[in-house]
From TrEMBL:
This is Transcription elongation regulator. The lineage of its organism: Eukaryota, Metazoa, Spiralia, Lophotrochozoa, Platyhelminthes. SMART domains: FF. Transmembrane segments: none annotated. GO terms for molecular function: RNA polymerase binding; transcription coregulator activity. Pfam families: FF (PF01846). GO terms for cellular component: nucleus. Residues 11-54, 110-167, 169-225 form the FF domain. Residues 1-23, 56-108 are annotated as: Disordered. SUPFAM superfamilies: FF domain. InterPro entries: FF_domain, FF_domain_sf, TCRG1-like. PANTHER family: TRANSCRIPTION ELONGATION REGULATOR 1, WW DOMAIN-CONTAINING PROTEIN. Keywords: Repeat.
C-alpha cells in the first residue's frame, strides 16, 4: 500500500481538511516512514490532491443529499400545512353552515311566535285603551301564551302589544272622524254634548263612548284643526274679493257691525250695492264654514284695514 494511502488510516490524517495545503501537510508527515516509502515527490502531491478532491466530492455529495432532504422536508411540510389549512377551512365552513342553520331556525321560531302572538292579541284584545298590565291577565289565560313566552322576551311581547294597540287606536280614530265628517250639521263650534245627542242612536258612536274622555279630546283636536283651516280659507276669500270690497268702502264708507250693516248711506243705490257684496260673500262656502261671530269679526277687521 502506498505511503499516503497508509497514512489515511493513521490518527494524524484527521487533521487534514479540505482547506489544508500540501506544503503544510508535507511538513507534518515528512518523517513518517509511510510517506517516505513513496519515492516520487510529485506522486505524493498528486495523491494528496486526489485525497482532498475526494473529500470535496464527499462534501458536495453530502451537501446535495442534505439539500434534497431539505427540499423534500419543505415540500412535505408545505403539503401538511396545506392539508391543515384545508381542514381548517372545511371546519370553519361546517361551523358557519351550522350557525346559519341555527339562525334560520331561530328566526323561523321567532316569526312563528310573533304571528301566534298577534293572533292571540286579535282574539283577546278588543280595546286600544287597555294597559299592558291589564292585557297580560287576559293573555295568560290562553294556552298559546306559554309557548310564545318561551321564544319572545317580555320587552318584545310588550312592544308587539304596543304596536297592536296603536293600530287599534288608529283604526278607531279613523272610524270616529268618518262618523263626525259624515254629518254636515256638525261644525267645529258644535258642543260635544250636542254631538253625542246627534249620534245617540248610532251603534258605531255608542261603541266609542266606552272611552268618552279619549274621544272628547279627539273631537277637540278635530274642531281645532277645522277652525284653523276655516280661518285661513276665509282670509283667502277676503283677499280674492279685495277689489270688490275696496270699491264699496271707498264710495260708501261701509263696515260691518252686529248682524247687519252700518253705513254712511247716500242713496238706496248704496244699500243695493252693499247687499250685492254681502250676498257674494255669503254665497262662498268659505264664508259659511266660519262661525258667524268669527266671520263678522274678521270681515270688520278686513274692512277697517281697507278704509285706513
Amino acid at each position: 500500500m502506498s505511503g499516503l494511502s497508509d497514512y489515511r488510516s493513521s490518527e494524524e490524517h484527521k487533521s487534514i481538511s479540505r482547506r489544508s495545503h500540501w506544503s503544510g501537510v508535507k511538513r507534518k508527515i515528512d518523517f513518517d516512514p509511510r510517506y517516505r516509502a513513496v519515492e516520487s515527490s510529485s506522486r505524493r502531491e498528486d495523491w494528496f490532491r486526489e485525497y482532498i478532491q475526494k473529500m470535496d466530492d464527499g462534501k458536495d455529495s453530502a451537501s446535495r443529499e442534505d439539500s434534497e432532504k431539505r427540499k423534500e422536508r419543505e415540500k412535505r411540510e408545505r403539503q401538511e400545512a396545506s392539508l391543515r389549512e384545508r381542514k381548517k377551512e372545511v371546519e370553519e365552513a361546517r361551523t358557519n353552515s351550522m350557525r346559519e342553520r341555527d339562525r334560520e331556525r331561530e328566526s323561523h321560531l321567532r316569526r312563528e311566535a310573533e304571528a301566534n302572538f298577534n293572533a292571540l292579541l286579535t282574539d283577546a284584545i278588543k280595546s286600544e285603551i287597555l294597559s299592558w298590565k291589564e292585557a297580560k291577565k287576559l293573555l295568560r289565560k290562553d294556552s298559546r301564551w306559554d309557548g310564545i313566552a318561551d321564544v319572545l322576551s317580555r320587552s318584545e311581547r310588550e312592544s308587539l302589544f304596543d304596536s297592536y294597540t296603536a293600530g287599534l287606536s288608529k283604526k278607531a280614530k279613523e272610524a270616529f272622524l268618518k262618523i263626525i265628517n259624515s254629518n254636515e250639521s256638525i261644525t267645529y263650534w258644535t258642543p260635544w254634548k250636542d254631538v253625542k245627542e246627534i249620534f245617540r242612536d248610532d251603534p258605531r258612536f255608542d261603541k266609542l263612548l266606552s272611552s268618552e274622555k279619549k274621544w272628547k279630546s279627539e273631537y277637540r283636536d278635530w274642531a281645532g284643526e277645522r277652525e284653523s283651516k276655516a280661518k285661513n280659507n276665509f282670509g283667502e276669500m277676503l283677499k280674492e274679493k279685495t277689489s270688490l270690497m275696496s270699491s264699496c268702502v271707498y264710495f260708501f264708507g261701509v263696515w260691518l257691525v252686529d248682524y247687519g250693516v252700518r253705513a254712511k248711506r247716500h242713496s238706496s243705490e248704496n244699500d243695493t250695492m252693499l247687499d250685492d257684496v254681502l250676498s257674494t260673500l255669503k254665497a262662498d262656502i268659505r264664508y259659511r264654514a266660519l262661525e258667524p261671530s268669527q266671520s263678522k269679526a274678521m270681515l270688520e277687521e278686513f274692512l277697517q284695514r281697507l278704509s285706513d
